[in-house]
């Protein structure tokens, strides 16, 4: 009997020891930083507050949030004591610390850290207008090379169609033997160029066929000019693809732009403790110039003023870019690390918190919260307009082609109608008259030369 009682008691004790009993109400410490935790009236809101609410629903606990007293994340001094949120968790003043706390080896030794709820790294923040000088042919950048070739082909094709239509149409050139032909090929090129620049040049076609072709070309020119100037204006906005500083190699190899990071931060520790010669060179330069900043806001302010590159965690820099349209973050990200929730060392709740974070990540909730709180007010300025490709204007090229074809066809019909009337008057076949008209109108050389010689002989 005693043996059975001892066995049952041991089982209950072991079960209690292995359980992950969660206290009814947890004390949560956090730090005020946008967009993780910000004040709205008497309440706190932000990414971390939404994350805490989701985790509490999954794990099943109530909580009370308080701001950290010394407004610090947590750093160990020379005597081994911790301050900030990490210190409050170590001393038992808080059960959890939820904030953009970087998961580091030193913190992992002092407190328990969950699976990261957000990945970040180290990148560079600077003004957009720190860019290369404009190239000699930047005025060609709104259109791709294929588009320019297409425009040139359309220009030559339109000039050729105007020249042919003006020669074929009897409404434009009634008597091929005697009348002077105004629309030579050179004049057609000049007329088409004038229409392209929306200026006009000289005499306009009188025949319906020529007007159809000209109207098509005018419409094409208006749309082409509108697209060109619109894209040219947008392409003048300097973006990260034109930045002189595209990464840490560029940053370390120049001396025109000063750069620095947050003092006493994990970013500074990364460069200080790194064995990479490039990163060591960056740290030594920051140490020599004493270019550290005391806060994130100061780093953003100096970057906005220009000629300063702020080195920080990419997630925080992305937020600065979303809030300040004149800033841009370099594409290179180094030193990937994660943000985690801190709890007392050996706390049984860490396992449940990690599982809840993984579940939220797999369900896409973390990505939704990220998009919610990192929403940009600079959407229109974020994407650099790419050079317009031919397929972007394929509709206008099609309309122009139809206009050229229709105008040329109308010119042939006009000549055919005149040939039929002339054939009836002369009692000849329409085909022979039409062939003779085509020969006179399309033959090489100056068709007016014989008439000029006749006039000279008469004189």
UniProtKB/TrEMBL annotation:
Main localization of the protein described in the UniProt heading: membrane
SMART domains xrefs: Lig_chan-Glu_bd, PBPe
Annotated signal peptide: 1-17
Site positions for Crucial to convey clamshell closure to channel opening: 245
TM stretches of this protein: 147-165, 185-202, 208-229, 339-360, 395-417
Positions contributing to L-glutamate binding: 100, 102, 107, 266-267, 313
GO CC aspect terms: postsynaptic membrane
InterPro entries noted in UniProt: Glu/Gly-bd, Iono_Glu_rcpt_met, Ionotropic_Glu_rcpt, Iontro_rcpt_C
Pfam family, any one: Lig_chan-Glu_bd
Occurrences of domain Ionotropic glutamate receptor L-glutamate and glycine-binding (ranges): 35-91
GO MF: ligand-gated monoatomic ion channel activity; signaling receptor activity
Membrane topology: Multi-pass membrane protein
Residues at the site labelled Interaction with the cone snail toxin Con-ikot-ikot: 272
Domain Ionotropic glutamate receptor C-terminal positions: 25-376
Bridged cysteine pairs (disulfide): 325-378
Similarity annotation: Belongs to the glutamate-gated ion channel (TC 1.A.10.1) family.
Functional description taken from the UniProt entry: Receptor for glutamate that functions as a ligand-gated ion channel in the central nervous system and plays an important role in excitatory synaptic transmission. L-glutamate acts as an excitatory neurotransmitter at many synapses in the central nervous system.
Protein name, as recorded: Glutamate receptor
